[in-house]
Amino acid sequence: MPDKISDVSVTQLIRERVRLDDELARHQEAVTVLFVDIVGATHFYDQFGDVAGLTMVQKFLDKLVPVILEHHGTPVKTIGDAVLARFPTALDAVRCALQMQLLLLGYNNARPSVEQIHIRVAANYGPALIKGTDLFGDVVN
């Protein structure tokens, strides 16, 4: 015989999931995002110490914000050694990524190899839930 409490709980969970999915569908809009993270950032923490390594990473990420703004982007958030930005068009995001690569080239040319930074860049387009200034959904993940 099925347990009535767990049957009710499962039914409530399913109803809540359907309600949340419906709400998400009503509030989603298509966005272009650019996600940039530093390859091997923990190497900087290990090599230079936590504070100095974090300072190096943060100083470089701070240099990306004006590039994002210059290409009509909106920085959404920084997450450790990464930055997420939203753009009005995919072309703006790609141009921004190219400018970041040029910035990185100049940055690295002025430093010894142990201080050079390498980045990964991902541009995604798709539906996202926009809640305040934050974004949620597969396009972000």
Mean pLDDT: 87
Protein structure class: alpha+beta
Largest sheet: 5 strands, antiparallel
For the largest sheet, list the strands in their spatial order.
Answer: 2-3-1-4-5
Order of helices and strands: HEHHEEHEE
Shape: elongated
Helix content: 40-55%
Taking all Cα atoms into account, the compactness measure Rg is: 20 Å
Distance between the termini: 41 Å
What fraction strand? 25-35%
Counted by DSSP, the helix tally is 4
State the low-pLDDT regions, or none: none
Number of strands: 5
Brief sketch in words of this structure:
This protein is an alpha+beta fold and 141 residues long. Helix content is 52%, strand content 28%.
Topology:
Blueprint: H1 4-27, E1 28-38, H2 41-48, H3 50-70, E2 74-79, E3 82-87, H4 90-109, E4 119-131, E5 134-136
Antiparallel strand pairs: 1-3, 1-4, 2-3, 4-5
Helix pairs in contact: 2-3, 3-4
Description:
52% of the residues lie in helices and 28% in strands. Helix 2 packs antiparallel against helix 3 and helix 3 packs across helix 4. It is built from 4 helices and 5 strands; from the N terminus they run H-E-H-H-E-E-H-E-E. The longest helix is centred in the first third of the chain and has 24 residues, at 4-27. The model has no long low-confidence stretch (mean pLDDT 87). It is elongated. A 5-stranded antiparallel sheet has the order 2-3-1-4-5. The chain has 141 residues and is an alpha+beta fold.
